[in-house]
Design goal:
mainly alpha; globular; single chain
């Protein structure tokens, strides 16, 4: 039996780092393997294939994020049962979550395959890449049940502080992904379908590894496949936390789809450039997200155990540690921006457009850290709807309003990108006010 992290006692900063760093490494590694898809097609299949893969990012996020948000509900609910030492309900939550993952994945598979081309057409995807983009999207979504299974099994393991096994599973599956990318594209001369098939195979491997780990667990987190069922009261609790989180992410993605549609109007070169630069935004965001997940999990356990002062300390430590890590990685990417983009394209025009996105968006990614961590605190104590509403209005609302009002009057690549930091600032300020009132109400004693 693996030793469970004691989130309720002792020092915090070291445990938060031990939790967050493997999680950040997992997400970054996952994105590196996704970036390998982009790099392989960009260098060996041409700019159209690069743009085709890049154009799918917002679509995938839009359809996936609602259900991935439910895994946050799993994390909080299981962590709270562990914190209150309710082993029976923790185990019920585990089995409910596994079945929820599989059902969610099947729903996404059907939606993704049947709606791939219509969605891409609505986004004004350039004609020279839409066929390839549709092919990639359909193959990618055929593996959606396994993507959901990985996210939920990883969330279950995180609830007790285990972020190492998801990392190991991803190292194994991601290595397979990279090898298959090269084999399919270079040896068999496949295009986007090659990297899509490789991605599906790697997702199958990573999800089955974690499922096997849970079947071998001892105690509350052990999975017995014959006992998979929905426990209504547990499902409601997961949905209470996860649905607002998922809706926030989904609506968030809608605004990004609209931005992507506007980017598509500039042509395939701009789409390719944006896809290349976006990888480094993901890397920075994953650092932020790792500390956000740490905050949700630690606060979930401590709030259930009525350790209110410790909840406040968790928020302070995650903001401090997350800020330092985000600033460091952002500076590295900006200083070595030419090297970073050279992995994806050798076209100087596309590279210049990618640099512009890095300067405007990536350089201010630190603002996102406050948004994610303040939201995480409120979710950890059960206030999932509050940050969801604020983020929907502050980020999504402002971006949609901008695209349909001010942007058409000053339509340019630079002006389109400016909506990212502007919406972040407004939302962070609103969340800071909400955080002050929530913690004053819930953590006073």
């Amino acid at each position: 039996m693996r030793k469970q992290v004691d989130m309720l006692h002792g020092s915090l900063w070291d445990k938060l780092l031990l939790f967050a760093l493997p999680l950040a490494a997992t997400s970054i590694l996952q994105q590196l393997f996704n970036a390998a898809d982009v790099a392989v097609v960009g260098n060996f299949a041409g700019n159209s294939a690069l743009a085709a893969v890049g154009a799918n990012g917002p679509v995938i996020n839009l359809l996936v994020n609602l259900f991935v948000g439910l895994s946050v509900g799993t994390n909080v609910v299981v962590a709270s049962f562990i914190g209150s030492d309710n082993q029976k309900k923790a185990n019920q939550a585990v089995h409910t979550s596994i079945l929820l993952a599989l059902v969610s994945g099947i729903v996404l598979l059907v939606i993704g395959i049947s709606c791939a081309r219509p969605i891409l057409e609505m986004m004004s995807t350039p004609e020279d890449v839409i066929d390839l983009a549709t092919l990639y999207l359909k193959i990618y979504f055929s593996g959606m049940p396994f993507i959901m299974l990985y996210n939920f099994t990883a969330a279950i393991l995180r609830s007790k502080g285990d972020t190492k096994r998801p990392l190991i599973a991803l190292i194994i599956s991601g290595s397979v992904n990279v090898v298959l990318n090269l084999v399919f594209v270079i040896m068999f001369h496949m295009s986007v379908e090659g990297v899509a098939i490789a991605t599906v195979i790697s997702n199958i491997i990573s999800s089955l590894i974690l499922l096997y780990c849970l079947t071998q667990e001892q105690g509350a987190l052990r999975v017995n496949l014959k006992e998979l069922k929905f426990h209504k009261h547990i499902l409601i609790q997961i949905a209470k936390i996860g649905v607002p989180t998922g809706l926030q992410s989904a609506v968030f993605s809608i605004s990004n789809v609209l931005i992507q549609s506007s980017l598509n109007d500039f042509g395939s070169a701009t789409v390719a450039a944006s896809a290349a630069a976006l990888n480094y935004e993901y890397f920075s965001y994953f650092i932020i997200s790792a500390f956000s997940q740490a905050a949700v999990t630690f606060i979930g356990q401590n709030y259930a155990a009525k350790n209110y002062q410790r909840c406040k300390q968790i928020t302070k430590w995650t903001i401090l540690l997350g800020s330092i890590a985000t600033i460091i990685i952002t500076i590295i990417f900006l200083v070595f921006h030419e090297l970073c983009i050279s992995f994806f394209t050798s076209d100087p025009h596309i590279a210049a457009l990618a640099y512009t996105r890095m300067y405007i968006v990536l350089s201010l990614e630190i603002i996102n850290m406050f948004i994610e961590l303040l939201s995480a605190f409120m979710r950890g104590i059960g206030y999932s709807s509050t940050p969801a509403i604020i983020c929907v209005l502050g980020i999504c609302g402002l971006r949609i309003l901008y695209i349909y009002t001010l942007y058409p009057m000053i339509a340019s690549y630079d002006h389109l990108l400016m909506i990212y930091p502007v919406s972040w600032v407004c939302t962070a300020l609103a969340l800071a006010i909400a955080y002050y009132h929530v913690q004053k109400k819930e953590l006073s004693y």
